[in-house]
């Protein structure tokens, strides 16, 4: 499903750092600068990547925008046991239906984005 989210390479790397640092249940206590540095992103690149992850609802911020606290969406968070996972997924589905939790969103296109056109290689004559 991640390919449908149209994430940049920087956003994928930042998401990986968040996943590595999370506590069971998806809480991440780290600054954006720490997370970005972990994967070699500049402050601006980390900021842009985090904004994209938040816009897709993969990363949720507390309403008070508490510094250094992020939450991974329950659908992508890890859990300590299979039972906790099942309970969290059921709870998340109920909260999404009630409008209390956003769904993970993919960009909507009126038409499909263009596919990259590969240019065939051709020989070039050497100068001289």
UniProtKB/TrEMBL annotation:
> Record's SUPFAM superfamilies?
Winged helix' DNA-binding domain
Provide the residue span(s) of the region labelled Disordered.
Answer: 104-128
InterPro entries hit by this protein: WH-like_DNA-bd_sf (IPR036388), WH_DNA-bd_sf (IPR036390)
Matching Gene3D superfamilies, A to Z? Winged helix-like DNA-binding domain superfamily/Winged helix DNA-binding domain
- Protein's name in the database: MarR family transcriptional regulator
Q: From which lineage does this chain's organism come?
A: Bacteria, Bacillati, Actinomycetota, Actinomycetes, Kitasatosporales
